[in-house]
Amino acid sequence: MRGVRYSDTAVRLMTYNLNYGNPDPIGSLDAIAAADADVVLLQEITAGWQRALAKRFATQYPTHIFRLHRRNAGGLAVLSKLPVGGEELLSPPDGGWFPAQRMVVTTPFGECEMLHVHLRPALDNGSWISGFMTTPPVREQEMIKYWKELARALPVIVAGDFNEDPTGLALAFLDKQGATRVATAGPRTWHYEQDSWDVLKMDLDHIVISGELCATDAIVLDTGTSDHRPVLATISAKLAA
After folding, report:
1. Cα–Cα–Cα angle for 213, 180, 39, nearest 5°?
2. pTM attached to this predicted model
């Protein structure tokens, strides 16, 4: 971009929905370990996942934050090599199922506010078909509420399982606030598999950054054993020319 130069320090961020019913946790733990991101945001964390993550990453990640939920799919976790402060849960609005997680991470380019989300799945009264039609406004309202609760005095990163593709209303709201979805290379982030074939696939997991930031090397990793794939990006600050 003309008139803008980029810092030579960055943070490597991963978001990954582990799937609370994952049949092969070791494969997904291996995927996290191999990516070796600076900060890892994880969704669908249960007590079992907490035990496995705490044991596996006792050394690799000094900071562990676990927030379990009464719904198995609602648990959140953070693994970080960087200092994390001000961590708190944000309650969803009416219609939302899971809380969001706000925190301030001290990165190589300074403090950054992070919003970790798992927005309402496209499920309504047990139906994915009706949920596809009825739940988009719920996700928009979730994001509107969470955005209002951010301090926004710092650069902002929003990441997690949005449960909507890049044309969704929650992402459209963030775009109106000047925040940009990080485009990724690689396969789709979510896939429904039968007989080792992806019969349904969508981009549901996203990293979004405010205008003070830029992202490079963003990729969806074709690894792990969840129905979601990890999203990984290198994020740094824009510096005035």
Report:
1. 55
2. 0.94
